[in-house]
Amino acid sequence: MILVIVILTSIGLACAMLIFIMNKVLPAEPEALKKTEKIAEYLPGVNCGACGLPGCFAYAQALAKDKDLITTNPCMAVLQDEKMLGDLERMLDIKIDSSSMNKKAVVCCTGDPETISNYSGIETCKSASKLTSGFKKCPYGCLGFGDCAKVCPQDAIQIYAASGRNIAVVDPEKCTGCGLCVKECPNNLIKLVPADTKIVFLCSYDSIKDIPGREKCFRGCLHCRKCYKACEHDAIIWNKEKGIPEFDSAKCTLCGACIEVCPHDKLIELSKVTPEDKKEYKEKEKVGSK
Amino acid sequence: MAVINNLVLSKFLGLCPFFGVSKKLTNAISMGAAVTLVMLIASLSTSVIYNYILIPFNVEFMNIIIYILVIASLVQIVELTIRRTNIALYNALGIYLPLITTNCAVLGITLINAKEGYSIIESMVSALGAGIGFTLVLIIMSGIREKLEVSDCPKAMRGLPIAFITAALLALAFLGFSGMM
Q1: Residues A197, A245 within the same domain
Q2: How close B5 comes to chain A (CA, Å)?
Q3: Chain B interface mutation, best of A5, A6, A11, A36, highest count of B Cβ atoms under 10 Å
Q4: Full pLDDT tens readout for chain A, 290 residues
Q5: Could you say which of A84, A101, A118 is where a domain stops?
Q6: C-alpha distance from B105 to closest chain A C-alpha (Å)
Q7: Which domain holds residue B62?
Q8: Between chains, do B77 and A18 touch, taking CB under 8 Å as contact?
Q9: Is the CB of residue B80 less than 8 Å away from at least one CB of chain A?
Q10: What is the secondary structure of B132-176 as a DSSP string?
Q11: Domain that residue A89 falls in
């Protein structure tokens, strides 16, 4: 018994000594590797893969080789965080203009409880959308099984199930604009908008896709142009082809006139697309529809 | 050892790297090289320990725990050495070296050496054979999988499922070699 302990301990000690000696004897680490490791420290380390490289360390390696990569293929999570961005700028000795590259994901649907059938299959949006383009009345509506929430590395997407309207909501505070959810949504409801966008339009239903109107979704865009007429700052451009409003955030003053007039509450300030606001806003709508 | 008693296909050791790293030919070759290298070093040191420490003190039952200890620290040292001296080789082997620290194929071959009572030279030879066999299977598998990627395969079978079936067929084919003995 004691013999066993002695042998095991001595072998362990011998191994430890060997590693220690090797560590001292061998020359110091090459510069390039050190630099890569330092860069990797400033990256978020969530390994979301949105940059197209396998993990943050691979991105750091690529950055060490070519520092322009931060502008050509930026890490969205870094651009979100001012401290991280500052550290990385100092590290790489480069100036990054983050405002033009920063993006946020928005789920362009306010949710509709009306269904055309009962779906009891596999609970993912992908499989539900394969059956007659979904069980919701609107073929472009959010199915609410949360395929997007599952892929989000930041946990920024939540599903709100209030009043039978399962709907995904992206929290713009947490969203880094990596775009993983955009690829995941089978109905292509999630759009990446520039982070300085002021007003977002929460409907994916435009006149190109199908006949406009209420028969598909009670809360769909009516293409009534009220918002366009209400805007006093020429910040809304009416897209005639699609029949939907488009926004010029440079001119928008966030006066809220368009939000006010929209009969179906399709417009909302980007900073207010938080789950809490959405919940409130849903309750309001519910009362309205009765 | 390379073909007849192939580690992957007849002893079913080291299956995780076999499926994990056999998607691309280049990865498979680096992984095979790393595993062969570690197997050689591990077999050398463990057979020295087995023959000159464990047998004289009559504590052969301790071999698994001591082997894990020795192999893990050896891999650390090898990684350290390669990283500090040859950066090109380090980039080529990359993440595979730390991955195989306690790979079951490496531990398996040292335990087989102990079970068969091989001497130091014999265990080195068997480790070399096992390493070559492992690399061979990895290369064959990655070659097949590269072709499978572009083949018209039912959607449900794509990826791992078809790889498992391929592996089973490969194992059957390798079984034929044991008849040649």
Answers
A1: yes
A2: 31
A3: A11
A4: 888 888 889 989 998 998 888 888 877 766 777 777 778 887 877 777 777 777 787 888 788 777 777 767 777 777 767 777 777 777 777 766 665 567 788 888 877 667 777 787 788 888 888 876 667 777 777 888 888 888 888 888 888 776 566 788 888 888 887 788 888 888 888 888 887 778 888 877 666 655 545 566 767 777 788 888 888 888 888 887 777 888 887 788 888 888 888 877 777 777 666 555 444 444 444 443 33
A5: A101
A6: 21
A7: 15-174
A8: yes
A9: yes
A10: HHHHHHHHHHHHHHHHHHHS---GGGTTHHHHHHHHHHHHHHHHH
A11: 33-101
Residues A53 and A161 in one domain: no
ipTM of the complex: 0.70
Same domain, A112 and A178: yes
Examine residue A177 and state whether it is found in any structural domain, yes or no.
yes
Q: Which residues of A45-78 are buried (b: 16+ CB within 10 A; e: fewer)?
A: eeebbbbebebbbbbbbbbbeeeebbeeebbbbb
Domain count, chain B: 1
pTM equals 0.53
- Check which CATH number belongs to the domain holding A122 and give it: 3.30.70.20
- Looking at this protein, which amino acid is placed at residue A22? M
A138 closest CA partner among A242, A246, A201, A219 = A219
Write the CATH number for A52.
Answer: 1.10.15
- The answer to whether residues A115 and A193 belong to one domain is yes
Distances (CA, A) of B136 to A65, A157, B24, B38, B105: 34, 46, 14, 16, 14
> Which of A101, A132, A155 is the C-terminal boundary of a domain?
A101
Contact A15 B53 (CB under 8 A): no
- The answer on A136 and A95 residing in a single domain is no
